[in-house]
């Protein structure tokens, strides 16, 4: 199943969160490769602009390029959105479904409210899980062997640290779902992958930075230059093309992938062994550095909470 | 913080899911070690029996042993339950909070309904997350340095396979929460651990077996003799005593822990390196065996779905 590269020419790819950031970059890349592309998101203005950008990249007149404004919040809403996108294809399930919808809102756990934690799971797990569920059912019912489901997690789906209590659990949950489906969808000849992108310079990052605590900023400073959405989309595409179970786009996340693979197949026996070895030596130093930063922040944090009336 | 062993004598330990299975076994073990123990669950009959069993194990007359029938379904319900248990201690947060509540309902992803997936997350993530949230806030507010939060995941929080789409994501999410809080609760001197028990012979297993697909049974047959709840509780206790970030009770899960540690501290540099090496060689063989079982089940599965009208 994974021995030859997947060719998207003439295939239908369905992308959630496709109006912006990574989803849009992937949609553009696949349009250039001759795929039929359906993008789904909420905001009609952004969808219009995104669709116009796809039209400019069209490589042949028969390509079907469509944008759908739809909620993906529930199983039925996600099913409706998928059905709408399958309509121009006589109801056939897409050849590939890629779920890019999501967005982080970091903060201190003790300051988060019930709704913050709940929304984190909603926006970063369920909106992807419901699409995966609708697509899996449709692909199994139609016996669409060779089709693909690709979820999008984050580096924070493989590891975590302070500030991400409303985000990392959802991204870990997606990994649990992908690893389950990687095994289960073999029953239908459907392959399942998951992408763990690092922080990208996208509109989503600007949103996330609005609630990011200063200490989390400080720890992230060490991450260096951020990937663009276009760069991340190239890595995602290469992983899909090869059929890797776990896909990464940068060196740090590759270390966490290789040293956090659980039971998943390796992408490359030799390289992943090397990554695992490097991680075995290097990650404890990285963690010790972060732990020291956190411990060094204790007094400032107490003052911060005190000012906000936390101890009152 | 982790250099000396934790002594529960005279400490208050709060255990959710404490009326049965692992939670009850841990409550009994800690009662024998002189801890004040509060157990929380729903069913009053089971709580009464559990509390009676704790009373029999009491080692001194001043031990406070209590049982609380309470829902843990929401942030406010979990906060109320915790507050009730803190009342005999003049409102002081417990010295340790261990969240054992949960239960699995395996099934095929394409046959699960929205509510099945939703309930899986509710019963296996949120009931633990809300208790962790309530406890974290209280410990931080009262500056209870040295206190502990221990979440209970599963082997299926480190890896997964077919049948567990309503369970593995929630157990992975707990791991994401624990790894976040392991870093974040350093700000308050609170240590956070997570336990990954294998399948145990508990009342929860009888419940889970009611919906377990035959192919999942077949794959599990290779697991050998199951741990009892008492055996698992001993491993959990040893991990808490040592302050391990990730706690396991059996060899297989230790392999997945060592080869799936992400950024977490190792329990033992040499042993975990060895586990990681064994996992690097052995896990691909294990996975290949499971994959073959799944692929060998394709025809039978199609017949099964056909009979249930799945393709109609």
TrEMBL record, chains A, B:
Enzyme Commission code(s) on record: 1.1.1.102
Species this protein is from: Crepidotus variabilis
Q: What class of enzyme is it?
A: oxidoreductase
The entry's protein name is: 3-dehydrosphinganine reductase
Q: What's the catalysed reaction?
A: sphinganine + NADP(+) = 3-oxosphinganine + NADPH + H(+)
CDD domains the UniProt entry points to: KDSR-like_SDR_c
> Where mainly located?
endoplasmic reticulum
Q: Which GO terms describe its biological process?
A: 3-keto-sphinganine metabolic process; sphingolipid biosynthetic process
Query: Per its UniProt record, what Pfam families does this chain match?
Result: adh_short
Give the Gene Ontology MF terms in alphabetical order: 3-dehydrosphinganine reductase activity
Q: Which residues cross the membrane?
A: 149-167
Where found, per UniProt? Endoplasmic reticulum
Which UniProt keywords are present, listed alphabetically?
Endoplasmic reticulum, Lipid metabolism, Membrane, NADP, Oxidoreductase, Sphingolipid metabolism, Transmembrane, Transmembrane helix
- Give the UniProt entry's GO cellular component terms: endoplasmic reticulum membrane
Name the source's superkingdom: Eukaryota
Q: What is this protein's function per UniProt?
A: Catalyzes the reduction of 3'-oxosphinganine (3-ketodihydrosphingosine/KDS) to sphinganine (dihydrosphingosine/DHS), the second step of de novo sphingolipid biosynthesis.
Q: Which pathway does this polypeptide act in? A: Lipid metabolism; sphingolipid metabolism; Sphingolipid metabolism
